[in-house]
Design brief:
MetI-like fold; mainly alpha
Length: about 300
Amino acid sequence: MLKRKRWTFAMMAILPTLAIFAYVRLYPIVDTLRLSFYKWDILSKRKPFIGLENFRELMGDHLFQSALINTTIIAFGVLIITIPAALVIAALIFYRTRSRLSGFYETAVFIPHVVSLVPAAMAWKWIFDARLGPLNAALSFFGVEPQAWLFDPVLSVICIIVLCSWQALGYAVLIYLVGFKNLPVSLYEAARLDGASGPQSFWHLSVPMLKPITLYVSVVTLISGFNVYAQAFILASDAQGAPGRQVRVLVLDMLENSFRNYRVGYAASEAVVLLAIVLLLTLVQFGLLREKGKA
């Protein structure tokens, strides 16, 4: 009886939080899924049910396909750069700087993650500027011709990947440092007695034991990469200065369809596709790491 009362009290205590979470997080997802089956025009009173017509139209929309390709390249580019770099940097901070400077290095690495996105993107836009940017000035010392970083579609994608990786790196390093601090020291001492070098201990002990951390950081980084928007909006401007036109990404395409073209139902179908892609990739990552763990 006492156990039941405690359980009831606990459920009543967390019920308001669950209700707020459901309203703020779950309800928008369900409502977006519902809107994707309607021709929902803000300016029209009539909003007919059209089934899968929005999704069929997506398959032939070259703007959506371009946005999907660009977003996928950016997301996986950030993932490929961030995970190995964060793991190595965290290891160097943990094993090489066990002193009063450790806190300084951790803070220095984490600062880009907490810096406001807009001023950070504007600073990077100045760095990549074709005429006045320090990047082209530095490359000129090596005989490299000035590059139009923000006006070439391929180079613009690379610039966005660099900016997103720079921002994501600090958080990933901090999470990896937490993992390193919780690894059993006895295993490393045993490996050292057996003649294992530092790199061997890192590769055969640290990396396998940090797989749960790697999974979490990979999922968070990939989701963040697929939700890229402001970076493309600020960096990738076209020659006339229109923001975000040089590199089209999914979130930007959704916003334009919603608030410029007033096609809310069509934008909702794009959001559903984005959600499905993120869920699928997350499940694949869980499956791959689980199989490696069993092996």
